[in-house]
Design goal:
single chain; about 80 residues; alpha+beta; YefM-like fold; three-stranded mixed β-sheet; 3 helices; about 25% helix; elongated
Length: about 80
């Protein structure tokens, strides 16, 4: 894993993308304190979302949505 300042990341963007494509993780740091603010990871390492469980209704109720149902989790939960 490589940590790089924002300015250097901007100047070497194409090189950083090549490194990520090769499987490396790039952490971007910002400011005097070099606060880590982002990580660029290979797409195949992106965590996948697990299906939501029904909690207390598991085994009692079920839910399904049409394939063309378009709403984000936040919209569904009223967040």
């Amino acid at each position: 894993m490589q940590t790089i300042q924002v300015g250097e990341f901007k100047a070497r963007f194409s090189e950083m993308i090549d490194s990520v494509r090769a499987g490396e993780t790039i952490v971007v740091a910002y400011g005097r304190n070099q606060e880590k603010v982002a990580a660029l990871i290979p797409y195949d390492q992106l965590p996948t979302h697990q299906p939501r469980q029904l909690g207390t209704l598991a085994g009692v109720a079920s839910v399904s949505f049409a394939e063309d149902f378009a709403i984000t989790d936040e919209e569904l939960l009223g967040a």
